[in-house]
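Lab notebook, bench 4. The sequencing result for the construct came back, and we need a structural model before the next group meeting so we can plan mutations. Quick request posted to the team channel:

Model the 3D structure of this chain.
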Amino acid sequence: MIRIVNWLLTRRCNLECSYCAIVKNYANKPSQYPDMKYYLENEMDTETVLKGLRKIHKHNPNAFHIFYGGEPLLRKDLWKIIKYCNDNNIFYTIISNNTMAIRPLIHKLIDKAGRIKGFTASVDPVFQEAGSKEDRIIKSIDGFDNLLVMKKFCDDVVAEITVMKDNFDYLYELLEKLTAEGICGDITFIDIAKSPFYDFSNITDPSVLVDHTPELAGQFQRLLESNLDIHMKQVLLPEIWAILPSDTDCGIQHILHNITIDADGSLRLCLRIRGIYTPMFIDIENFINDDGVISSLFTEMIGHDKKGYCKKCNHTCLLMSDYIERKEETEILVHSDRR
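Done. Here's the predicted structure in token form:
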């Protein structure tokens, strides 16, 4: 059963963060991959998204939907998508860079769609570098300040924290600030592009990854023993430590409980890897029927791509959906319910 749905609603973004490959073309991209122009000209329309939401809701009314970009607020129809989710009791969060340039679009969204159930902003531990012109630092400073504002308009406000070796020492301080403001931190460790098919990450240098050292082990233990508000802390942090720097085999080909939909409506192998066979043969129109039954062709293509293109990673979305699969508690992803 599908528990988590990752939507790359658009490849457009107002930023180009150094570690993100989703919003840019990159060197040595496989010839089978469409370029950015393709995604901009073939972005799925509103009705395609809503039809997909209807089918998935039929399959599992408790599925959790994560609306990524690019920057999803750049879609002028986002309010229709969110209003549909609000009206049909669909669990979701919007992941935005939440920069000052995006703030007016957030207010327009709220005006048209109403109160937002879930909102996640990218906030990295980089406050010591204020004044930098680097996009990942600008979005982190803006994101923190604007999350305080979002608490007025949103039920579940979260900070998505991307950690690299060069900023791990600042993670505890950032989580302290977030916790003091009543904001949950969702920790993600930077992953590496092990091949051109790993098109979510723009990182190719393994030296920037967080790996196993005695010092880092101590910091992980400090996080575990703290009262800091960290998403699924006792479940995810030990699992993350075990797979660092980038060494988990999620087994998606065996139990399909997590899917990713690309900006053109095609299905990916996973959030990290686009694959070849899955997006070639499966799209949002045919991966699941009107009765909510998943196509056997989809699982077959996932299997082909997993065998051919996956070299393991450190992403946690499959860990989360596997935990939900075992516990049958979708609400674990709705952070405000824990307080």
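Strands lie at 4-8, 64-68, 91-96, 116-122, 154-163, 184-189, 258-261.
Will bring this to the meeting.
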